[in-house]
Amino acid sequence: MVGKSVIPALVVLLAACSGAEPRVPDAGARSATAGSGSPAAASAPACAVTGKLIPSCGAWWGIAPEIFTGARLEEALHSAESRMGATADLVHVYHRGKELFPTEQEIRLARDPARPRLLLINWKPSLGHTWAEIAEGAIDARIDRLAHHLRRTFPEEFFLTIHHEPENDVDTAAASGMGADDYAAMFRHVVLRLRDRGVKNAVTVMTYMGAPNWASKPWFEELYPGDDVVDWVAMDPYADSRVHDFGSLVNKTREDFDEWPGFYRWMQWRFPGKPVMVAEWGVFERADDPAFKRAFFESVRSQVRRYPQIKALVYFDSPSAPRGDTRFDTDPTADRAFTELARDQHFRATRVPRP
Question: Cystine design at 303: which of 55, 165, 246, 347 (Cβ 3.0–4.6 Å)?
């Protein structure tokens, strides 16, 4: 929980540094020029991608395509890219339990010679064991099998988030094995065991829900597994009735949790040197405001540069998300606004490196 004594200092600090870019490490940077070939572009330094997949210019544009439609991943992605009139840098996929990843489909998309893509792989290691049991080694054989698969099939860097959005799974009962500290121990154990088994290409992501009510819990800070096992931090905010534009999406606040400054502000303060990912975001239909999606997508385009620590934006595209329809093209004007956003130079400045 962010206590009352911390908030005033946090607000002052953020007011002083809110326009500053996070430091991007130089080590391992790979050229990913996106210039037009003009003399000015030729003389400008090339945009680069670090070994932790941080783009030095702009941000990655990503999508979880046509979720809950039953479409195969390749078909869903190609359809979504056609619908939005732009290609994705990053593809968000979901796996559970014993499933091995990346799959053949995912590898084909990552290695597409015409348009390589980064994978954001979302893995819940077990639905039958508690976090404490996983941390104590209950699924080590599963982790080792996955490590062998990764070493054998996929040497490229990819994003890996482990049991995303843990907040609503926390059980504070004694000996539940599902406390916030158990989550942190589980995340650490999985990452360190994968690394010990030779998986060096997983860029790890800690993904929070991004909701003020969970951030106000006394155990909230205990979820974090540690800087040594977390490369990026992420949030999964959705445009519900309390949200009116991009700024209020990434910095959601609520009157009944008045100590909470908003997730982006908190991440700036808590993780000043780490890139931020909006790993899921979506805009629901509003019966009383049919133009809301269009206006919201326009706000993203006009405001996203105010949040320079955000280095990836990944849309959740689904006709039946848990709280509504997040398809970006339910209205022709929304579709055009989303296409303009997807094509914005902020998301086209750095190219995905070829494998």
Answer: 246
